[in-house]
Amino acid sequence: MTIKRRNHGRNKKGRGHCSSIRCSNCAKMCPKDKACKRFIVRNMVESAAVRDITEASAIQNYQLPKLYLKIHYCVACAIHSRQVRVRSVTLRKVRTPPRRFPPRR
Fold it and tell me: pTM for this structure?
């Protein structure tokens, strides 16, 4: 039988089972190795209120804390929210990771 992907859409290599997680978007149960994982770092305060908080702060040069989120998407939600793209049959064989953009300042 023909196969679509070399890893069968999973990152499981040699393990029989793996734990399941819930999709952050739709709460669907999905194997942890199949889920599309994203690590998001963002400011706890939106950019409009940062200046007000820094002016009202009693501590000089106070660094506002950041929010660290590990987000798991099922494959359907990752495609729908454009986290991953559908690739053609020939481009599925390409294993080089996509180009990384430098962080914005």
Answer: 0.76
What string of DSSP letters covers 11-71? Answer: --TT-S---EEE-TTT--EEETTTSEEEEEEEESS-HHHHHHHHHH-SSTTPPPPEEEEEE
Q: How confident is the prediction along the chain (105 residues), in pLDDT tens digits per residue? A: 888 888 888 999 999 999 999 999 999 999 999 999 999 999 999 888 988 998 888 988 888 999 999 999 999 999 999 988 998 989 988 888 888 888 777
Helix (H, G, I), strand (E, B) or coil at 7: coil
Query: For residues 66 and 45, is the Cβ–Cβ distance under 8 A?
Result: no
